[in-house]
Amino acid sequence: MIIQLSSSCPPPLRRHPLSCVFALVGALLAGATAPALAAPLLPPVSAFFETPYLGEVTLSPKGSMVAMAIRRDDGTLAIEVRETANPAKGSELARVDNVNVGIADIHWINEKRLGYTLKNLGKNSSTFLDEFAIDVDGSDRRHLISGNWNHDQEAPTGTMIGSRMLTAGHMYVGAVHDGSDDILIVKFLWNNTEIMSESSRLYRLNTRTQRLTPAFEGSQPAAIKDWMTDNDGVPRVVTSKVQGRCTTYYRKPDDTTWTNIDSGQCLELGTLFQPRFFDGSDSLYVNAAHNGYAALYRYNLAAMKLDPEPVVETPGFDFRGAPIIDFDSKRMLGLYLTTDANTTVWFNAALKADQAKIDAALPGINRIICAAHCLASPILLVRRETDRRPSEYVLYTRATGKMVGLGSAHPGILPAQMGERSFHRYKARDGREIPVYVTLPAEKADGPRPAVVLVHGGPAVRGGSWEWDDEAAFLASRGYVVIQPEFRGGAGFGSDHLRAGFRQWGAAMQDDLADAAQWAVKQGWADPARIGIMGASYGGYATLMGLIKDPQLFRVGVAWAGVTDLGLMFTSSSSDATRENLGYSMRTMIGDPDTDAELFRKYSPLQRATELKQPLLLAHGADDRRVPLEHATRFYRAVKSNNPKAELIIYDDEQHGWRKQQTLLDFWKRVETFLDTNLKH
């Protein structure tokens, strides 16, 4: 069977005007998690970037309860559990300080017990992730993993462990779905020179006794980066990464040794053999190359080879999806997929019928989030997504079709004020077809408007999808056309698209961004005299190079957490780059600092800082280790000598990207003022 998907539907068909909230769930969606808000003339920055009022919503394995993170009026975050049959009835299990601690994840262990992960957001934090477990009645709370690197109590593996926290370097990775109180955790193995782990090992942890046991018996390959378990929680597939090469190993459930089933260059993302999931205990599904794109194949474990034809292919896109597994039958019921937008393909007739009923009632893209016992669950959780409204959550009763809204992530957003988002492809100057998302302001215009090219980070990742994007929505609400190219060198659009960006930082990758702006001008959307460029990380680098390379096109720039010098990426003593990345992947994607000195000079903004004359807003986290602060401070000193319109903001308690609410609000208020002053008119 081959399921062939391209775009989920033509972009115009996905535009759902939401001038009124749908009647069935409107009252609860509008006010379940926050007081009703008066409609402002323009939604404030906080409406987009405050910590969500509702998030991490997850259904219990049998569907009797739903857990969620809720932001209270006092700014604290609470973890609540509610009965799905009566969502008004529930209890608060924990409350955390939203300023210094965030809720990173909530996950069910069994029907009576759940786990949650907290992340310390404080200045110079020596913490990683703290893991807890608690019963739904609030009893037997256990602190399972301490995220504090200074915590010196190490819990040895074995049966003699008492009730003891594990140290930083352990991390929750998944449930076991067997009704027990166990979870799966990974322990990172470290070398003596790097902060980043060089390998890992998988364990089961009992969340009541805190007893730690190996997840399997026997040896394991070196340098394991990824683990895959079957639907019984048994490790079956691992991937190691050594000298730029990714190798996949497989074992039968009771084997003590591993068999090499594939090996290839890690950066060949469009052609690389990538294990995805098990369906039952004997069917392994993988990504593999098909007509220049990654497609989903079944891997025949008996014959140790791929089936001749893919199960799912998505022409124009690499397969990107996740299975929906029923842990009673241990079988796949459907697939979540992303092409230009999210969609769901159901193999189960009953759930396909549920999807049709939900879609008929709720405009948008509705993702049914099944419990572990999906087929038997009387109630389903639905996450509704559109381009003009943040995620909303609804409980759907299968027997009656009744829907009850739980709330919205950002209830202060009014869909009628939000712009429409659409997907296109344009021709770059060398003829390459480049995917792009465009968000237009909601207000009608008499002619072209100011525009911003918003560049994603990575860069070897996919930038986004059609659904809600807070940054694009915010900029469009301020009257800007937002252009988000999926430039060459990014992932998700075929192996050739990815490879075409190797060693093209500042060159063809940069030209794709300029070509996107000029294409938007030709569409009549963008005013050629009022185009800005902005982005974070690689997007920050591209912003600076865009201002330098195309000064006649880009009038202003905003760069945060951005790379400013290619050579410094390889030499900074503050960087968290591993020897593996420095020696292989970075040299493949960016260039070789030993042999490409001229390329690094030509395409490093720091080396050409005096050429940048336009207004520039720079921002950086003081504790950034991915792109250390010296990138920003060196560049600012160099550009400021010839450009009084450059400004640098340093956030003392931030790392690579903004984690804290006050930083997000401060930064985007500055962006709003900066663009209003320098670009809008």
Question: Can you describe this structure?
Answer:
Residues 468-680 form the Peptidase S9 prolyl oligopeptidase catalytic domain. The protein is an alpha+beta fold and 681 residues long. It has two domains: 46-245 and 265-276 and 323-408, Neuraminidase (6 Propeller); 418-678, Rossmann fold (3-Layer(aba) Sandwich), CATH 3.40.50. The chain is 17% helix and 35% strand. It has twelve helices and 37 strands. The strands form nine sheets. The protein has an eight-stranded mixed β-sheet with strand order 30-31-33-32-34-35-36-37, sandwiched between helices. Strands 2-3-4-5 form a four-stranded antiparallel β-sheet, with no helix packed on it. The protein has a four-stranded antiparallel β-sheet with strand order 6-7-8-9, with no helix packed on it. Strand 34, helix 7 and strand 35 (556-560) form a beta-alpha-beta unit. The longest helix has 18 residues, at 661-678. The chain starts with a strand and ends with a helix.
CATH architecture of the largest domain: 6 Propeller
* Share of residues in helices: 10-25%
Low-pLDDT runs of 5+ residues are 7-39, 153-163
The residue-averaged pLDDT reads: 89
The largest sheet, given as strand count, sense and whether it forms a barrel, is:
8 strands, mixed
Number of helices: 12
Briefly note the structural class of the backbone.
Answer: alpha+beta
Strand runs, count: 37
CATH top-level class of the largest domain: Mainly Beta
Strands of the widest sheet, in order across it, are 30-31-33-32-34-35-36-37
Q: In the residues, how many domains can be counted? A: 2
| CATH fold-type name of the largest domain | Neuraminidase
- The percent range for strand residues is 25-35%
> In whole angstroms, how far apart are the ends?
56 Å
Radius of gyration: 25 Å
**Overall 3D shape:** globular
Domain Peptidase S9 prolyl oligopeptidase catalytic: 468-680
Enzyme class: hydrolase
InterPro entries: AB_hydrolase_fold, Peptidase_S9_cat
EC number: 3.4.14.12
